[in-house]
Design a protein that fits this description.
Bound molecules: iron/sulfur cluster
Keywords: 4Fe-4S, Iron, Iron-sulfur, Metal-binding, Pyridoxal phosphate, S-adenosyl-L-methionine
Protein name: Kama family protein
CATH architecture of the largest domain: Alpha-Beta Barrel
CATH class of the largest domain: Alpha Beta
Number of helices: 14
Helix content: 25-40%
GO molecular function: 4 iron, 4 sulfur cluster binding; catalytic activity; metal ion binding
Radius of gyration: 21 Å
Oligomer: single chain
Number of strands: 14
Strand content: 15-25%
CATH topology of the largest domain: TIM Barrel
Cofactor: pyridoxal 5'-phosphate
Largest sheet: 9 strands, mixed
Order of helices and strands: HHEHHEHHEEHEHEHHHEHEHEHEEEEE
Low-confidence stretches: 1-10
Length: 432
């Protein structure tokens, strides 16, 4: 396998070799997409075996014994807590070797990547009484299954319901991933029949100019499916812009560099095809923390940049992950330096099972206040709330009212559904 370009040798550390299981895994193996897929951690027995191998005997932390996680002092108590969390969580567990290699297993309770993927039974708080499984009312706004049409000129095509990783806080936990003990999924499997109904709706709705192809994750569409969907959409005269949504660059960047795999080549070809007919095709990805970025990520981002693929990033604001100015600023700068446009920072959605990860609205308002002006305007993300109930994305600072005591903020969305409705976002109810 040949890499698209070479980094300075000093930066090329085999960071995966700190995992005892992967001590002897070569660079060539680790960078192969087939190896990444074959060694992805999913299912409780594989997870327990991995954690037993990687965790120290004693789990260090400075938490008081009375706190929710204070009792977790040994490897076994942590593994038991994670397995309990998996049975309570709305998302099944799947994590790539790239991500597993970037977690600090000597300090897992304070690791920002660990928090995003591994639920802890003791840390799951009661859901806010106003939250719902499909918080953004996507199914209610779907004229055909798997096509959300909320804004006048934009639609969201859910082409699959599978992802290379499953994020605990996924907005689409009603549909994405395998069924869990707590959620029977309304999955949107890739199927030509279903896609045909989606294409037909788009073809007959001339006011739609923008399509986001998501899921699930477009990384789990076969390269030929990427080409088929993209070419079909580009052939529709009123479609001017297409975005493929994939966390792949963040969680399995080596695929972009793997010349034995053709996913990136399909995307590059579509971007070029789009340019030739004056239409824009882009990749939207999802980094939440600077620790997710390695030399492999930098190479993959450079490869896409050299080939003319526009990449934008959508970060989710998460408590204990990126809810401070230093981390968020550093993430934005790292993305900008890789020519990935920091496009959105989202307030965490009001979905099931992740109250420990949500922040009050005030956090995103404070972040924007401190970050805006510290980096070029075109590299400054919009700080937004995707309104519960289907009001769409609004700037967090555009709230109509915000009662900080009760934690209730109100918004209006003039361009959505007649613009009359008042939408409410509820801060998490404070735990310990
Ligand atoms: S990659 Fe995206 S769609 Fe998949 S679980 Fe994460 S947030 Fe949800």
């Amino acid at each position: 396998m040949l890499l698209a370009s070479q980094p300075p040798p000093c930066s090329r550390q085999p960071y995966w070799q700190k995992i005892p299981f992967w001590r002897d895994v070569s660079e060539e193996q680790f960078l192969s997409y087939r190896w990444q897929v074959a060694n992805t951690i999913q299912g409780t027995s594989k997870l327990a075996a991995f954690l037993s191998n990687v965790l120290p005997d004693n789990i260090p932390h400075a938490l008081p014994s009375s706190s929710r996680l204070g009792h977790i002092k040994t490897r076994n108590t942590l593994i038991e807590d994670v397995l309990e969390g998996v049975t309570k969580a709305p998302m099944s567990l799947r994590v790539t070797p790239h991500i597993m290699s970037m977690i600090d297993w000597n300090n897992p309770l304070e690791d920002a990547i660990c928090r995003q993927f591994f639920p802890l039974g003791s840390n799951i708080l009661p859901d806010h009484p106003m939250l719902t499984l499909d918080s953004l009312h996507e199914e209610a706004d779907s004229p055909v299954p798997g096509l959300v049409h909320r804004y006048p000129d934009k639609a969201l095509f859910l082409a699959t319901s599978v992802c290379p990783v499953y994020c605990r806080f996924c907005t689409r936990s009603y549909a994405v991933g395998a069924n869990t003990d707590t959620v029977a999924k309304h999955s949107q499997k890739p199927s030509r029949k279903r896609w045909e109904a989606v294409f037909s709706y788009i073809e007959h709705t001339p006011n739609i100019t923008d399509i986001v192809v998501s899921g699930g994750d477009a990384y789990y569409l076969q390269p030929e499916h990427i080409m088929e969907i993209g070419t079909r959409l580009l052939s529709i005269p009123h479609i001017r812009r297409i975005r493929f949504a994939s966390k792949g660059l963040a969680v399995c960047p080596s695929r972009i560099l793997d010349t034995t795999d053709t996913w990136a080549a399909a995307l590059v070809a579509l971007c070029s095809q789009g340019r030739q007919v004056g239409k824009h095709v882009a990749l939207h990805t999802h980094f939440n923390h600077p620790n997710e970025i390695t030399w492999v990520t930098e190479l993959a981002a450079q490869c896409l940049f050299e080939k003319g693929v526009v990449v934008r990033n959508q970060t989710v604001l998460l408590c204990g992950v990126n809810d401070n100015v230093n981390t968020m600023s550093f993430l934005i700068r790292r993305l900008a330096d890789m020519n990935i446009q920091p496009y959105y920072v989202y307030q965490g959605d009001m979905v099931r099972g992740v109250e420990d990860l949500r922040t009050p609205l005030q956090t995103i308002l404070d972040l924007e206040q401190h970050i805006r002006g510290t980096i070029a305007g075109f590299m400054t993300p919009s700080f937004v709330v995707d309104l519960p109930g289907g009001g769409g994305k609004r700037l967090a600072a555009s709230y109509q009212t915000y009662d900080r005591e009760s934690g209730v903020s109100t918004f209006v969305a003039p361009s959505v559904k007649g613009g009359q409705k008042v939408y409410k976002y509820y801060d998490p109810i404070a735990g310990d």
